[in-house]
Amino acid sequence: MVDTLLMLHAVDPESIGLADFGRPERPFAREAQTIGFDLVEELNGLTGVEYPRDPATAARIASYELAFRMQAAAPEAVDLSRETRATRELYGPDFGAQ
User: Fold this and answer.
1) Which of 61, 15, 56 has its CA nearest to residue 41?
2) What pLDDT does 3 receive?
3) In the predicted model, what is the mean pLDDT of residues 56-70?
4) Which of 35, 42, 49, 94 is the most buried (most CB within 10 A)?
């Protein structure tokens, strides 16, 4: 785990597309997202090696993974523009006024 963290700190953020990290007006490049996801997966796996029978750690990892899947699905789940006209009319006359 220490080796992975050392490798992480050795990465030049600009060279992997993270120069604008934390700026929502400039989303992550696909490559940067992949690197981040791979790192989290590796760290979760290493945690499983360090604490193989710790139910609290396993539950925490599962909870974070579920939260990520829910956040990733949220834009599609709340995209009401794909509703049928009949369904949008059921929402009422003020639908989309906000």
Assistant:
1) 61
2) 74
3) 86
4) 35
